[in-house]
Design brief:
single chain, 327 residues, alpha/beta, Rossmann fold, 41% helix, globular
Length: 327
């Protein structure tokens, strides 16, 4: 393919996708809002166009001369349900409606969904692509809505849906919180019940995107993707502690305390009109016993293999945080 459009290119995952594609010699056009920060992708020297998936009139120009699309744009935090669905659902509808006008040229579309769209695992059994979705948050419900939009366009576009669990790596601000707490010598854990999760390092996810773009088999398919291991919040804390080389006190937070903190976050968000790091829906996600998935299908059908273990990913992420003075 000659040129790939990446939406959400200035975001955490989108930035890693841009870098991965450029490193493989792929020409990349980045769709970004004028207010977006592009420092991370600038060294890759991609072509840049300004636009927004919520503004349909900006999309046709961005799609000129494009052979493939990676749709990363989306909201992971929002002050209300309306904002989530406006970007994560309607943004998909706008983009794929515009793409349908160029369907004879487009050879592949990779749509980035989320494990939150499927929901938590039942009885710690990893979910698969065939699991019945049951999202537990507005974020998850909006990502599922966007995924359904992508599926509805499969009769007109060669769409592959990629579904990652929690993603971490350089530039991620969510996992940065845990590193900052560990630097202060504490690591909060919620309740006494073990909680399990699947993870994927950002560079491995970007490589999975590239694999789906290049494979003729991926069109019309959906793939879960992770690093192949199931962690617990404790094992993740252990990995951060080992890499930081310091002893960390584990603080067990009672569930009622977490729910109260989430409710307070709701109040702050309503008062300020801005998204907050912790609210009642985020607490509800944290309280689930397991967020685990199986990536067997993408391994078997596309030969994809992640390159980073949790330890390697934590080491590289920590080095980046320190180098960029985030920590």
């Amino acid at each position: 393919m000659r040129k790939v459009l990446v939406t959400g290119a200035s975001g955490f995952v989108g930035g890693h996708v841009v870098r991965a594609l450029r490193s493989q010699g792929v020409a990349v056009r980045c769709l970004a809002r004028r207010a977006s920060r592009i420092e991370f992708i600038k060294p890759s020297a991609p072509e840049l166009v300004f636009g927004d998936v919520t503004l349909p009139e900006t999309l046709p120009a961005a799609l000129e001369d494009i052979d493939a699309i990676v749709h990363c744009a989306g909201l992971t935090k929002a002050p209300s349900s309306r904002e989530y669905f406006w970007v994560n659902e309607e943004g998909c509808r706008n983009l794929y409606s515009a793409c349908a006008n160029f369907k004879h040229r487009i050879v592949k579309v990779v749509h980035l969904s989320s494990l939150a769209a499927i929901g938590p695992s039942a009885d710690v059994k990893p979910v698969t692509e065939g699991s019945v979705p049951h999202p537990v948050s507005d974020y998850g419900r909006s990502k599922l809505a966007g995924q359904r939009i992508a599926e509805s366009f499969r009769d007109r576009l060669p769409i592959c849906i990629l579904i990652p669990p929690a993603v971490y790596g350089p530039r991620d601000k969510d996992f940065l919180v845990y590193f900052k707490l560990a630097a202060r010598g504490i690591m909060p854990l919620l309740g006494k019940t073990p909680r399990y999760l699947s993870l994927i390092y950002a560079k491995d996810l970007a490589q999975a995107v590239a694999t789906c773009l290049c494979s003729e088999k991926s069109a019309g398919k959906s793939y879960l993707v992770d690093d192949g291991c199931i962690q617990t919040w404790t094992s993740m804390a252990d990995a951060i502690e080992r890499e930081m080389g310091k002893s960390v006190i584990r603080v067990r937070l009672p569930v009622p305390f977490a729910r109260t903190a989430g409710a307070f976050g709701d109040l702050c968000s309503r008062w300020s009109g801005k998204a907050v790091l912790l609210n009642s829906q985020k607490v509800e996600e944290f309280l689930q016993t397991a967020w685990t998935c199986s990536s067997q299908r993408i391994r078997d059908e596309l030969g994809y293999r992640p390159q980073y273990s949790l330890e390697q990913g934590i080491k590289e992420t920590l080095a980046w945080y320190r180098e960029e003075k985030w920590l």
